[in-house]
Design goal:
129 residues, alpha+beta, 60s Ribosomal Protein L30, Chain: A, 4-stranded mixed sheet, 4 helices, globular
Length: 129
């Protein structure tokens, strides 16, 4: 499945120096909202893959301007995207422990940074089985 998030990716790691990376703090909310809106239509299929015990592959291609792409740590970005994707698919009830079966070790991840005028993130998700 292919999920396109039509918003500039906001890295939590790069956010330490917001001004240096040319970002504003309110862009984080826009990124999370766009990710949520893009993932929700596919959530039933993705949950089914998890429940079947499938190991999943995530290939994330992050597009953006050179000022944003240059400082982006792709490994940190992949970890952040998997965490946020998991939180959308399996929301945590306040005060409840995090489920272990949906954790990150079920993913094989690949990532790429691409300089492009149109910021967006393309997530390609499929089963390895």
């Amino acid at each position: 499945m292919r999920i396109v998030v039509p918003e500039r990716f906001v890295s939590k790691k790069t956010a330490i120096s917001w001004a240096e990376a040319g970002m504003r703090q309110d862009k984080d909310a826009a990124w999370l909202s766009a990710l949520n809106a893009a993932v929700i239509p596919h959530s039933a299929d993705l949950r089914g893959m998890f429940e079947n015990g499938s190991r999943l592959r995530l290939r994330a291609t992050i597009y953006g301007d050179p000022q944003m792409i240059k400082p982006l740590d792709i490994h940190d970005a992949l970890a952040q995207i998997v965490n946020q994707l998991t939180d959308i698919l399996f929301p945590r009830e306040k005060g409840k422990p995090k489920p272990q079966t949906q954790d990150r070790h079920f993913w094989k991840v690949e990532g790429e940074k691409v300089v492009d005028e149109l910021p967006r993130v393309v997530l390609e998700i499929d089963s390895l089985e």
